[in-house]
Amino acid sequence: MGRVICPANLNKAGEGMEQTEEWIFVFDSGLGGISVLRELVQVLPGERFLYFGDSQNAPYGTRSTEEVRSLTEASIAAFLPRGIKAIVVACNTATAAAIESLRAQYPDKIIIGMEPALKLAAERHAGGRILVMATNVTLREEKFCALMDRFSSVCRVVPLPCPGLVEYIEAGCLDTPEVRQHLHHLLSPALAGGVDAIVLGCTHFPFLKPLIQELAGPCVEILDGALGAALQTRRRLESGALLRPAAQGTVEFHNSLNTPEILDISARLLDARR
Ligand code: DGL
Q1: What is the Cβ-side half-sphere exposure of residue 186, based on CA atoms within 13 angstroms?
Q2: Which residue has the CA at smallest separation from atom 8 of ligand 1?
Q3: Cβ–Cβ under 8 Å, residues 45 and 237
Q4: Which segments of the chain have a pLDDT < 70?
């Protein structure tokens, strides 16, 4: 599929653009949502994707819930004039803070959110010890507490806040001595207790999966919700008869930093090693 990398100023989004209801808007606090976008591109190769990363305000995971909600709402509102048929909130943190208010504001839009893939992990590792790596906001919000309650009789859930990791991915550092050391520091105490599976509950973290697997060892299964979210998007488009007829798909990247570097990293992440 073709890829259009089109720097644009968020404030100008929508100006002078065609207004057909055919874009799928994929949003994240920064570049993490590209781990969801790469699955979307696989399962919906004929679609047109508009990706917006709010890297200028990342990380969201250490902000207040209200800040995350208002940043998320502002980003989505800025792109709606482009003609958006579906919104994928490719960010666990923004989903935890804002999905309900978004669904209330836009009841007619398809809105897909992310949640840590704990259901899948519990099904595959009943009785096991499951580590959930996510941001502070995701882990403290009601949504995750309810999810954890739901599966606490099936498996032992260990939430692990991971401050500082997102910044490496935002800088395009997927394998440097510093990121290895930071991961080692975060994960070693939890891994020492024995772990059966690790849930990547932040969309930035799949880009570090090779390093996390190396640290955890080959017997630990690492799961994330990207493919599930992509398949759910396809189901919703199918049932609304909103799939684009056989056509060449495109990806258009936008970022609030609006620098050539951030767009280069965005394009590189779409093809990053899994
Ligand atoms: N990518 C985001 C998530 O899935 C959050 C990263 C951040 O802290 O901004 O949670």
Answers
A1: 22
A2: 61
A3: no
A4: 1-21
